[in-house]
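User: Predict TetR family transcriptional regulator's structure from this.
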Amino acid sequence: MEADETVVDGRNRRWEKHRARRRTELVDATLRAIRRHGASVGMDDIAAVAGTSKTVFYRHFTDRAGLYDAVAERVNSNIIGDVAGAVGNVDEVVAFAEGPDTDAAWSPRQLLASAIDAYLRLVEDDPEVYRFIVNAPLVPLSERTDTGDAASGVSQSVGRQVGVLITTALQATGKDTTPGATWGHAVVGMVRAAADEWLREGAESSGTSRETLREHLTKLIWGGLSATWPDVDRRPAKEVLE
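Assistant:
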């Protein structure tokens, strides 16, 4: 590589890092604006919180849909991180299927409950951000996905993660793994629908706590999934959730 090409390449890398850092800062500012002004926050308020202009946002995200996608990706990563922390240790699933003398710390039901809890925590702890992701008031209808569901990407990602858990359990117990992916998305769809209604009614102030809603959903979902693991009641459950 010629010396001048090396210089240009180095400048390009520094510019890309600068753009990535700036995008991160603008997403951070957007989240602060959502929490301060609510899910229906407009671009003027977002720019004011960021201490810059709307032009700068459009330069980095092209349009409002691009900014929404960046915020959704951040929230998606946070949820996936929490869900992955709950269900990502597939060794626990395999160990539980191997017999009562294994050292699996979490029962399958507890893994399911923890995954549900990870989703509900976002609704409870960051309701305006959740409303922003689900309702996407910033994005014109003409710029949304074909289904009109702006939050479908987040739900699909979480559904895939839960599907991995279920598929692993089916495989560990010698069962047909074909339904795993479908069941993963079905579980997330159920949790999301219940979470949306819970938030509409006021979340914790509705009289139903997150813990209660988690248990209601776990009971309903587990009733269908318990056949995935044989003899799930063969030993006492270990309390791992707060």
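Residues 3-37 form the longest helix (35 residues).
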